[in-house]
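Why predict the complex rather than its parts? Because the way molecules touch one another can change local conformation, and only a joint prediction can capture that. The input here totals 660 residues.
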Amino acid sequence: MTDTLLDVTELSVHFPAVPLPVRAVDGVSFAIHRGETLALVGESGCGKSTIARAIMGLVPKTAGDIRFDGTSMPPLGEPARRPLLSRLQMIFQDPDASLNPRLTILSSVAEPVEITEPKVPRAEREARVLALMSDVGLDPTLAGRYPHELSGGQRQRVCIARALAVRPELLVCDEAVSALDVSIQAQILNLLVDLRERYNLSYLFITHDLRVVRHLATRVAVMYLGQIVELGPTDALFDAPRHPYTRALLAAVPSLTKAKVAAAARARGEIPSPSNPPSGCRFHTRCPEVFDRCPREEPAFFVLPEARRCRCFLVESERTTAAEP
Amino acid sequence: MSDPKTPPGPLLTVEDLHTEYRVESRVVRAVTEVSFAVARGEIVGLVGESGSGKSATGLSILRLLPPEGRIVRGRVLLDGTDLTKLPDAEMRRVRGGRVAMIFQDPMTSLNPYLRIEEQLAEVGVLHLGLSQKDAIDQAVALLDRVGIPDARRRARGYPHEMSGGMRQRAMIAMALLGKPELLIADEPTTALDVTIQAQILELLRELVQERGLSVILVTHDLGVIAEVADRVLVMYAGRIVETGSARDVLARPEHPYTTALLRSVPQLDQRAGRLESIQGMPPRLDQGLFTECTFAPRCRLVRDACRTAEPPLAPAVAGSPRLRRCILSPDEVAK
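Output of the joint prediction:
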């Protein structure tokens, strides 16, 4: 067992398209340590969900390596993948699309246990389901109900219980609270924090909502057009963002407390197409601090002190000589 | 009451609005006892969670409710004219004319088969009696104003050729064509990325200043309210539970629901230990009249008196413009 649970190296996922392939993910590297919550944030088309799907084996990778607990992950469907099935689980934005409407809650949560641990007797399996239901804050008397009889928040709890049923080590959450009303969202966020401690879970938390990230994440990776542009510990990244895109994102979040942000920090224009990303730095077409070098040359993912990285020429002078993590 | 030539007072007054949906044998009381006014040049935010009645209120004003919905009581006065009593033909002239509405998903309002300029020009021809050419020129000028680059060329394209943010800009341009005095915007930025949302909110603010437009902004996001709204109406279970200037309500809420809602939103500038979630779920609205405060079952400050009758929307201090539907004092709520 190593401290690094998931190690993603130079991952690329391209989708064939006419006239140009969509470069959804383009050379992305990051690691998730045990007990850590890494947030992947960014706007539409930045590639954050594609990374999750590539990790789960739901889309084939074009290049790069994904290692789980030291072992390179075989594609979904290969027998060598089976032992990993229960170690990584995923929950999605829309619980309605993830639950079979014809299965009771009990059957939905029990199903993954039946598949991964067929030797567990039925009575024990059901007892495990009922215990899980109360762990995620669902009244066990709901076990015989069907998904349509529950509220959206309750259905998301069912999805969480089902993901936990096989005792995973890594939970990939793709916009898992984005469709919920704020009061319900707060309940689910609190639940995810509790479960992280109780089950010693690690999370890959994918979201467009920076407020949720600040609350939940240990480290944050900010994505733009298929690349990570900034990576670092949550508090440091939020308090002193280094990449102009991170600053623009933070400035754009409506806040209850901060004064209205000067338009200068904002990103201009529209998000370009990932089929044909801008030359040089991909953010240069929208960057408030663009200069002559940006359209010509692509900045490296510079390593900075305090375990931070940033893909911008403006931080080049501060890069450390330390080896890349 | 008001002089139609130089109308004083508010542009829009909603009085005691009640809206119901009849689904099979059930009656869902979507909007109950809603009263508010919108002044000229004012942005009023209608905020609440799913099922709070915020969208139904917006749709009721323009009589755009689905077939199962109807206004059962109340008046909607636009400069003194009751829109609920207007004949259908006159109501059609109001929609897209003096009052325009935009929605979360511009694709549901744009015709995918028509060029942008054709559908925008239609508004100019219909509401302002312009020629097709003048209407297109005006449409292009407005597309340019709302920030669509290369507007003349874009106008000849189709909606699917635009990004979500562009389509919402085109919708705003279309809404402005009829020279509206009131714009009802229902979750106009909810489907957009944050950097684009910030641009659209900025545009709305500019248009209000430039044209003296009034806006009813329907949203679930208190942050959006904080950014742009002058006044806010907080809705719960079909009712207004608190109203006042956006700054006051967000800084010192006087209703326990508003307090709880504010505390359940994670903040950007600090990491909260634990979010305060609201226990339970909103009440069903198809079970007849309420005999207690609608928020009582979920309220952390509930007491026996809350269970005996629904409190009226009233000021804590007589004469204050701040109203709330709660029997507790503001100090008790702030605890």
